[in-house]
Write a structure and sequence with these properties.
Layout (H helix, E strand, L loop, with lengths): L1 E5 L3 H11 L6 E6 L2 H11 L3 E4 L8 H7 L5 E6 L5 H6 L4 E4 L4 H16 L19 E6 L2 E6 L3 E7 L2 E6 L5 E2 L3 H7 L5 E3 L4 E4 L3 E6 L5 E5 L4 E4 L1 H11 L2
């Protein structure tokens, strides 16, 4: 297995690299000290496994995963134990507390080996995988506040830290979901992925104007302006044109 070490602490990366020498089937192919470096390394090296810290300058480990279209297997390595539940919600293989113990590392690697040799899982066919209709209502909870909101009333989904913020009426609740997860449930005829950080409701578009480098800027009704990425600007023109 090819592994990428992602941690802002050089000492932590060095210690983990040393521990991994005891596992000859694991090759450390690179290191990154922040999310930006990690994204580049992942594209270039295509690792099988990420050893990922949570707190890093310029973006957390959760934000890095949310920005990836396809993520390798992940083992979190962190000094904080309060994010364990969140880690498994994003399908992490394991959650190792620093300083990493060799027996815990061995157990985590056993999980990675099992996953890599497991037969492929067939796509789900249950009705739950079908996109929700714009007229469907969804339950939203943020702290002590709850809403039952119609999807057609939601104008924007936007990454905010390790959560996604929902814009409807004057409300801005946070939910523990990634944009990738939301895309599997939202109707693509109504909701459009504008960039790595935002999904917009096409029915809430107020105006569109050309932007830098052949991109687009969209103004939402009673809402913020959204800059569409270059790739998604091309797709938007293709999908929305006659």
């Amino acid at each position: 297995m090819n592994a990428l070490l992602i941690d802002d602490s050089r000492l932590a990366r060095t210690e983990l690299r040393h521990l991994l020498q005891a596992f000859p089937d694991v090759a450390v192919v690179g290191e990154a000290k922040n999310a930006a470096e990690a994204r580049t390394q992942i594209q270039v090296l295509n690792p099988d496994l990420l050893f990922l810290d949570i707190h890093m300058p310029g973006g957390s480990g959760f934000e890095l995963l949310a920005s990836l279209e396809i993520a390798p297997q992940v083992i979190f390595t962190t000094a904080y134990d309060e994010y364990a539940l969140r880690a498994f919600e994003v399908n992490a293989l394991d959650y190792l507390l620093k300083p990493v113990q060799e027996n815990r590392l061995a157990a985590a690697l056993d999980k990675a080996r099992t996953q890599s040799t497991a037969p492929p899982i067939l796509p789900p066919t249950e009705p739950a995988a079908t996109p929700l209709n714009a007229n469907d209502q969804v339950f939203v909870k943020d702290g002590e506040r709850c809403w039952f909101v119609r999807l057609s009333d939601i104008k924007l989904f936007e990454i905010n830290g390790s959560y996604t913020q929902i814009y409807f009426n004057d409300c801005r609740p946070l939910i523990p979901r990634t944009l990738q997860h939301l895309e599997t449930r939202l109707d693509p005829k109504v909701f459009f992925r504008a960039n790595r950080q935002q999904i917009i409701n096409l029915k809430w578009i107020d105006s569109i104007e050309p932007w830098f480098s052949n991109t687009l800027k969209i103004k939402l009704k009673d809402g913020p302006e959204v800059e569409v990425s270059r790739q998604q600007s091309v797709r938007f023109r293709e999908v929305m044109s006659l």
